[in-house]
Amino acid sequence: MSAVSVTRRPNLPAVRPGRAVRWVAGLLLAALFVAPMLWMVSGSLKPTNEVFSTPPSLLPHHWLGANYSRAVNYISFGTYLRNSVIVTVLTVIGTLVCCVPAAYALTVLQWRGKRLVFGLVLFGIMLPFPAVMIPWYIIFKRIGFLGSLAPLTVPPFFGEFVTPAFSSALAIFLLRQFLQSIPKELVQAARVDGAGTLRIMLQIVLPLARPVIATVVIMTVLSSWTAFIGPLLFLNNSSSYTLSIGLQQYQSQHFTAYNLLLAASVLFVIPVVVVFLAGQKYFVRGAARAGLK
After folding, report:
1. pLDDT tens digit string along 18-42?
2. 196 shares a domain with 169
3. With a threshold of 0.70, does the pTM exceed it?
4. Which contacts (CB < 8 Å, 24+ apart) does range 42-46 have?
């Protein structure tokens, strides 16, 4: 009597209609955000006459990788890149130097008027930069800052709530919300052991707050690197232009080198993408925990 082999199908997970709809919606939303980036990269490799060809094509008919070297040499790209790096690095340092102690004082320390001060911080979040840019312009003009990078780099070191880059008030808010999730017993135990305020902040609170600090750093880099209104208002000297302003030089009254502009835009976006991908894990964790409170 021959044995009959029965082949059993593996137990496949059931595909729920709701999950399928979410996947399709997520893919469509991702395509909506990725499509402009792909079009920018494609246009940066095309001749000028192919950028607006009809019908449009995603892949170039004539690949021009030399557009990137031409774009760098078309304007003072290196100078503008250096200025953008200086502004971004100093803005990040100034934001952390001012906002971390402020959030620590609003969370860990006990003092009168703490809620009132935090209310003023929340008011700074709701106040947009266009509402204060004229007073800022007058102040910087009188002290001789116009035309230099000082209007973009000095305010973060003084904890100004409304700046052309990432709001210091929002940074304080995110840091405070995260620090509230740290057990108070850790701080009390450190005080019992004789640790001072500064030591508690540097050796206990800051290592635990690395996710939210990374979140603040990423958001500050993104806003400072791509800031346009502030540099346009305060920088009246071409030698102090940042990349966001320098990209305008690809446009003239009678001609615009769109392929070179797209190539320079790709180079402009790359540092932002690298910073976000490098800190994505901390960014998601910090943003999630900061919102728990």
Report:
1. 778 888 888 888 888 888 888 888 8
2. yes
3. yes
4. 43/258, 43/259, 43/262, 44/68, 44/71, 44/259, 44/262, 44/263, 44/265, 44/266, 45/259, 45/263, 46/259
